[in-house]
């Protein structure tokens, strides 16, 4: 249950393609790691999903890539869920944006129980693909062969292109190439709209999808093929849970956007009123209807504050912003993004910082995931007391992150792709240490001061 933002390079402030997503879960805690995978996890060319048991044939030659998998234990294991990757060929994959096909299309192409699901997608694509388009095409072939176990949206990017793919049924899908001067927002529903079957440069689709729709009389429109209208939903749940998130993001990026939070046809793609920065993307993924009556920690009525599902949640486990460049960056945030920072990590490395890599299943604030989970809790539960300091902390770390990226890129002028890995591994460790030290210092202050907020207290004479 996530929120997706994609930004084309002509729409971004730095001229880079950006794909980004929050990973939210049903559980309050679902510990995550940030790791560097040296080669494919498939054994002898076969990848078996822990979740659905599907066995997928894959190439034997593979590449390294980053990933953000679950931490598993003896009592909790739902599979890998790699979620966010950039591989050594500079191809980024973020999966998935959960979505739902409607009952009409699922009647004729039901989901496949032992098919491909979110737990496997990053690990069956990232080690093998050399372009974003190739990743779409590879996943399409695998879905047609093995079927999909659930409705999913997947983000793909390289330095030149961004693709967004939606799989609402067992075997049918479409993908659209993002126009480079536009951005897109996807909030847990089928979003892709009109498909031009005469334009295979900008659209990819499953074999037989037109015939499938025609055979079963599924298209409600007379003259167009609108994927959202045919395959998607617009229910009361969508109006409460999904469309309002897209509304808030569009409202933030486009001052001329005039649709309401429950509008039926909120667009997937749009043009912003300005160039979009990395910080803009991070703000959207950290937002909770800020400065509106719908903010759950704002000043609206209880009915207003609980009307819509916000983007940033206490159940956000991790968030990532993948910034595509010659030396690409994986910005990583853990826990409630409204209160925690995005940290820039270069991906051409030999490993990731141990505090991000070795997360334990049980709470241990040595590790970034747990540190930020506890930090978020203290800010939220003492919001009136700690919010100003939290805001300043986030501003300071946004400035640090931008400055850090600049400094490292300047130093990279003395390196190349073949000899930069040790240097970037060390630089990532320096970045992580700075952010974690600053977080621990502020958290210690919050925890100490929170001790005096107990209701089990009374005004006392200092001599008693």
From TrEMBL:
Q: What is its EC number?
A: 3.4.-.-
Q: Which GO terms describe its biological process?
A: proteolysis
Q: Which GO terms describe its molecular function?
A: cysteine-type exopeptidase activity; dipeptidase activity
| Record Pfam families | Peptidase_C69 (PF03577)
The entry's keywords = Dipeptidase, Hydrolase, Protease
Membrane-spanning parts: none
Which reactions is this enzyme annotated as catalysing?
A: an L-aminoacyl-L-amino acid + H2O = 2 an L-alpha-amino acid
Would you identify the family this protein belongs to, as annotated? Belongs to the peptidase C69 family.
What is the protein's name according to its record? Dipeptidase
Q: Which organism is it from?
A: Sneathia vaginalis
